[in-house]
Amino acid sequence: MTTEERARFDASLEEEEARLALAEMVYQARTAAGLTQTALAERVGSKQSVISAIENGSQQPTVATLRRIARAVDRHLTIELAAAS
Description:
- By secondary structure, the chain is mostly helical.
- It is built from four helices and no strands.
- It has helices at 3-32, 37-44, 48-55, 63-72.
């Protein structure tokens, strides 16, 4: 693997890990609130299939959607740009 190929691989891996972490975060917030995917979708103004896609990592939600999800589960959305380690 060339250096360039490795860099692309690492970037793709990092993006996938972020997508799955986000999916897990939404799932955890929904279940902690005691909501089904359908109930969350109704509160968010979306479809159950969209919530499912977010939770399984196949769809990355917009910031606006994350904000609506946070409100629907009585949480606040916080976005941070942390220093690289």
